Amino acid sequence: MNKHLLIVLALLIIVIFAFEPEDGGIASIETKHFDNGEISFDYPDTWNKTNGTGSNVVSFTDANGLNVKVFRLRTPPNYDLARRLNLDASGTIDENFLLVSEENITINGTAAYKRDYNVTGKNGTRQRREVWIKRNNLIYSIILTAPGGVNGNSLNVLVSSLKINDSNADPKYSGWAEIVMPDINARWKFCSWSLNTPGAVYHIPHSYFPGERGQMGLLGHRTTRHAPFLHINKLKPGNRIIINDFLTQKRYIYQVTSNDDVRWGVKWNDIDYQASEEPQLLLVTCHPPGFTSAALIVHSRLVEVEPLN
């Protein structure tokens, strides 16, 4: 056989083996099927399915510490998924939640987004992959975390087979985040549709969202509707305010910087929420209690980002 031909054949063999898909490729993975009428997909049969709760459609684990969750939530007003992902400050604010790659993809003809993170915590570093897709007013997300690295083929089984039945989609309201203030023993869900929802704080639609480089505004009543912000004047510089964001599946931890901003003759909708170099959170309520003569504003800044699981 010609010497040059032998060299070419050898190179071809090297290329074939070099690009052999991880774990034998998608075709070699045995699968099971999930279908709840709205969302359906295949998944590796080595994954163990557990029931989801709330916005969590379904969860999976495996023997190697893998954790997979599939979510769906109704979006609040002014929520632009592409803008939200581009402005997400995680990975730049906190080196323990580091964004390492991002890619725009397509799922069934719909724009989708993939993000990879390295997340460092008490139990070491885990890799986290997020896949996001928006259909109508709903966001569907797949969050996969693994201690030894993300197996792309296993996740591709799910993503490549994912189907969403819009006719069975349920666009009912669901709280997309909550605020926790440990130092005053308070926890309240978010509402973006009415500022008078009992037992909830109101995310001001023309302000920013958690983790974005700008001022996020939350309004809470001080004496009515369960008075969620009755005691925010007791927050002190250094106290933590935690935002559990179910849309991004991240926990944003803010630190109070001041609680003495009283603006007379100003109502919540008069405040201009500005872009800022670091993400900020403004808690806004009436002042004095029971009156609307002024706005009391507690200021805080983002100091840490964690996975919400």
Can you give a write-up of this model?
Residues 4-24 have low confidence and may be disordered. With 309 residues, the chain is mainly beta. The chain is built from three helices and 18 strands. The longest helix has 16 residues, at 3-18. The chain has an eight-stranded mixed beta barrel. A seven-stranded antiparallel beta sheet has the order 3-4-5-9-8-7-6, sandwiched between helices. It folds into two domains: 23-168, Protein Transport Mog1p, Chain A, CATH 3.40.1000.10; 177-307, Sortase (Sortase, Chain: A), CATH 2.40.260.
Low-confidence stretches: 4-24
**From the helix content, strand content and strand pairing, which structural class follows?**
mainly beta
Separation of the first and last Cα atoms: 61 Å
The CATH topology of the largest domain is what? Protein Transport Mog1p, Chain A
Give the number of domains: 2
Total helices: the number is 3
The secondary-structure element order is HEEEEEHEEEEHEEEEEEEEE
Task: Say how many strands there are.
Answer: 18
Average pLDDT, all residues: 85
Strand order in the largest sheet: 11-12-13-14-17-18-16-15
Strand content: 35-45%
What's the helical proportion of residues? Answer: 10-25%
CATH superfamily of the largest domain: Mog1/PsbP, alpha/beta/alpha sandwich
> What's the CATH class label of the largest domain?
Alpha Beta
Based on Cα principal axes, name the global outline: elongated
Largest sheet: 8 strands, mixed, barrel
Task: Name the CATH architecture of the largest domain.
Answer: 3-Layer(aba) Sandwich
Please tell me how large the radius of gyration is. 23 Å
